[in-house]
Amino acid sequence: MKYIPVAASALLAAMALALASWAGAFAMTLVVCGLSILIALGWPQLMGVSARRSLSAVIAGAGVISALGAGVVGSASDLFFWSSVALAFGVMSVFLIQVLRGTGRPHRLESTIGACAGVLIATTGAGWVAGLRYPVELAEASGAEGARGLLAVRGLLFEDTALLAVTGASGELAVVTLAAGTLIVATLLAVIPLPNMWAMLLVVVGSTAAALGMTLAWGELTLLFAGTLGLIAGLLLGSFRRFLITHGPPQGVLSGIAVGAAPIAAMGALTYFTERLLLV
User: Fold this and answer.
1) Is the dihedral of CA 207, 208, 212, 213 positive or negative?
2) Is residue 150 within 8 Å of residue 89, measured between CB atoms?
3) What are the boundaries of the signal sequence (predicted)?
């Protein structure tokens, strides 16, 4: 029962991202902004730090600025620029708050480290917006028609074989849709009460299989790329589950919501940089 807010938050966040990926970049930006605010509300409570309101404002501001920046830039090379800026200013703001609190305040070190971690998590959520826009920007830059759907993995000898080629007769499965759908499956598998070793194996294998299955059933992504993305999602959720079980459930509903939303937001950056590395 104590883990219900965590699981519900992760599942609803992944579902919202999957739906937003169909609605477009504007809807995705709104969802990521909301995700950043949810993380900001519960993160200081989770860390047990002081100055919660001011630190929540910094975390939320960093996440919102990152998402908005990724949504408005006009070049693929600048999609993560504002995330870097928000991260830098967010960390500086955290230190400034600690200075303004004065000397002799309790838990200063814990408050600083915890708030900086929250800023980092919030800014990674912009990867969902950047990941949704990146294939479009790439298609416009190259001038290739249909480049949004025909995404190929480069640098592999066997990428043109039947197994690794584009799979899907007419559908188009966006990368972020695939990532969000895989997270939904991984979250459902993670809540199954199993020993850590078996749970980790189930989440990793299950999320990889889910990514491959969604690509085979409907989409124009290579199986190799889909398997890589599914493996990344499984490792992230499986590792997070193990860490959570080891340290116990968070105290408070807001803390549970922040904990559940955190790995979903972090997957945004992993999805975006996987695109940048593997897609042409």
Assistant:
1) negative
2) no
3) 1-23
Cα–Cα–Cα angle for 155, 83, 186, nearest 5°?
A: 60
Both tokens assigned to 46: 């989770």
Output the CA–CA distances (angstroms, integers) from residue 21 to 15, 128, 172, 209, in the order listed.
10, 9, 12, 21
Classify the C-alpha dihedral 184-243-30-142 as positive or negative: negative
Residue 271: partners with Cβ closer than 8 Å, 6 or more residues away: 127, 128, 131, 175, 176, 179, 229
Which residues are bridge partners to 151 per DSSP? 221
State the chain's mean pLDDT as an integer: 82
Verdict on whether the full-model pTM lies above 0.70:
yes
d(CA 116, CA 146): 41
**Does position 236 have pLDDT exceeding 70, yes or no?**
yes
